[in-house]
């Protein structure tokens, strides 16, 4: 499994768990439409947190994952961000449109 695929799965689970209780209609729509996931690269934890704040300001589900610190990454470091929401492709592209694929 590629690095991007692994990261997308981890971030997807965080968003899934949130939307399951907060907005199941969006979750069902995502499930019916192919469960799209795209892995993009940012260059710092600060950038990741900025992207999360931008997504949340647009009322999108945005969940960052903090690493447990058991291997290569310092404990508590945010390593991946999942973003989802209603009409999400258009809104997510406003936030992530300049990022490159992982």
Automatic annotation (TrEMBL):
Q: Which SUPFAM superfamilies match?
A: Peptidyl-tRNA hydrolase II
Keywords linked to the UniProt accession: Hydrolase
EC number(s) per entry: 3.1.1.29
What InterPro entries has UniProt attached to this entry? Pep_tRNA_hydro_II_dom_sf (IPR023476), PTH2 (IPR002833)
Q: Which reaction does it catalyse?
A: an N-acyl-L-alpha-aminoacyl-tRNA + H2O = an N-acyl-L-amino acid + a tRNA + H(+)
Question: NCBIfam families under this entry?
Answer: arch_pth2
Which family, according to the similarity comment?
Belongs to the PTH2 family.
Q: Which PANTHER family match?
A: PEPTIDYL-TRNA HYDROLASE 2, PEPTIDYL-TRNA HYDROLASE 2, MITOCHONDRIAL
Name this polypeptide is given:
peptidyl-tRNA hydrolase
Organism per entry: Lentinula guzmanii
